[in-house]
Write a structure and sequence with these properties.
The chain is of the alpha/beta class. It has two domains: 123 residues, Rossmann fold; 158 residues, Heat Shock Protein 90. 37% of the residues lie in helices and 24% in strands.
Length: 284
């Protein structure tokens, strides 16, 4: 039998504790609570929690400082950050300090539970996401080619756009995830020793994602396993090709991403892609 996983929830609002305890109850995890940052730090000093879920604004010691202290004290403990007052600077600092994930309140309790489950199934993770350069308008990272890292990065970058309509945020997140997975799986061969370079850029009129993978690239004429190559009279032809090649079901990534953003531009080699979403469609 595997050892019982332990979670410390840190928030000065009892309602948050009750909400999270209820949604996490079906899982075989031990849940403990702390209501200020200093209490949480003392608990972490005396017990090696598997995961700490902390608010940012706390009495005694704020959550981002708590994150930094935990990373120094117990680097094996994963930390997830939550806040009702999210800013790009909070997200950048959380990523720099190697938080496992980040959620703005109000959040989906089930999404938090899913990310916690992912944390417990991801043993090696310390430098999966490396910050190369960070400003609120231009955020550059390097990511190990591990499929399980994709959803973590998508969540961090989804939070950078909390002022946008929810559907627009989700469309952009879905498009970015599809092409990030392509970069990790095809460009990097899911080899954790290889890395994908990612940039998020926000201007007054557009949001841009840039992805560069370590692979040899591709030509649109040579990817019959992708839906984007299907002829109009056979929109699912790639499904049979994927089955013959022993590939997992799918192949809709490029086609789907192209429908969710305004522009999708590849370099000549095919190992770099730019996704563009205009914020003011009248100025396109």
């Amino acid at each position: 039998m595997s050892e019982l996983k332990t979670i410390l929830i840190v928030d000065d609002d009892p309602t948050v504790h009750h909400l999270l305890a209820a949604v996490l109850a079906p899982h075989d995890w031990r849940i403990e609570s702390a209501f200020d940052g200093l209490e949480a730090l003392q608990r972490v000093e005396t017990f090696p929690y598997d995961l700490v879920l902390t608010d940012v604004h706390l009495p005694g010691l704020d959550g981002l400082e708590l994150l930094a202290r935990i990373r120094q004290l117990r680097p094996e403990t994963k930390v997830m950050v939550m806040t009702a007052d999210s800013t790009p600077d909070h997200i950048i600092r959380s990523t720099r300090e190697q938080a496992f994930s980040y959620f703005s309140k109000p959040f989906s309790p089930s999404a938090v539970a899913e990310m916690i489950a992912r944390a417990f199934s991801t043993p090696a993770w310390q430098d999966d996401i490396e910050v190369l350069s960070a400003r609120p308008e231009w955020f550059t990272l390097r990511v190990r080619c591990r499929p399980e890292t994709a959803d973590r990065l998508v969540q961090f970058l989804r939070e950078m756009k909390m002022d946008l309509p929810e559907q627009e945020r989700e469309d952009m997140a879905a498009a970015f995830r599809e092409l990030l997975m392509n970069a990790i799986e095809h460009g990097g061969g899911s080899d954790p020793n290889k890395r994908v370079r990612v940039a998020y850029v926000r201007t007054s009129r557009a949001i841009l994602y840039y992805i560069q993978d370590p692979g040899k690239g591709f030509s649109f004429q040579n990817i019959p396993h992708a839906a984007v190559s299907n002829p109009p009279e056979a929109p699912f032809e790639h499904v049979a090709v994927r089955a013959e090649l022993g590939l997992r079901p799918g192949g809709f990534g490029i086609l789907l991403a192209g429908k969710l953003v305004d522009e999708l531009i590849y370099n000549e080699k095919g190992n770099e892609v730019l996704l563009i979403k205009y914020l003011n469609h009248e100025t396109k």
